[in-house]
Write a structure and sequence with these properties.
Blueprint lengths: L1 H22 L2 H6 L4 H31 L7 H25 L3 H18 L11 H8 L2 H15 L3 H30 L1
Helix pairs in contact: 1-3, 1-4, 1-5, 3-4, 4-5, 4-7, 4-8, 7-8
Length: 189
């Protein structure tokens, strides 16, 4: 679930603003009396809905086809999904402030996605990786989200066990959002 969300959310958001830039419609968007943060939120909100649709399909398929249980709280899982979606969407938005074309935005997505896949514990056991890889992996949202999903769905973890992996997502999201916001303002100027 986390890998699919990472790739699709970052790519869709990253390409959204660069598409506006390429088509020349960004100037029309900027003509409205809105704050840059409002534009960013307006671009991100529809993708949160898309992300929740993906999560619903994945959870239903996991339960019906593979009998994967949800041992913990579904509302808590969905709240953690929201934080993870927001973290990935802010990465995509930041990439869109750097990229000059949709192709560049897509390339940046893959440069973020590949380390996420390899260093998050998705493909290889996290504790079996070299220390330097674990340090990098701890900075990636997918690492923490995979721990959250495994903990809630398979172990029935509560908030006390889940919080140590939620706060790094919130910090990551805040830092990337601030960087994206500053770059977005420079893009406008």
């Amino acid at each position: 679930m986390g890998t699919i969300l990472t790739m699709t959310m970052i790519m869709m958001t990253g390409m959204a603003m660069t598409r506006e830039l390429e088509r020349g419609t960004l100037e029309n968007l900027l003509a409205f009396p809105v704050h840059p943060l409002e534009v960013m939120i307006g671009k991100i909100l529809p993708y949160i809905m898309v992300g929740y649709i993906q999560v619903t399909v994945i959870l239903v398929a996991a339960h019906l086809l593979f009998s994967v249980p949800i041992a913990g709280s579904l509302p808590m899982l969905l709240l953690c999904v929201l934080v993870f979606l927001a973290a990935n969407l802010t990465v995509g938005m930041m990439f869109s402030t750097i990229a000059k074309s949709q192709l560049q935005a897509m390339q940046m997505t893959f440069f973020f996605f590949l380390p996420s896949m390899l260093l998050s514990g998705f493909m290889f056991p996290f504790r079996g990786m070299p220390h330097w890889a674990q340090v990098i992996g701890e900075g990636l949202p997918l690492t923490h989200f995979l721990r959250i999903v495994r903990g809630i769905m398979l172990k029935g973890n509560g908030w006390a066990e889940t919080w140590p992996n939620v706060w790094p997502l919130l910090v990551f999201m805040t830092v990337v959002m601030l960087i994206g916001f500053k770059r977005y303002r420079k893009t406008l100027d």
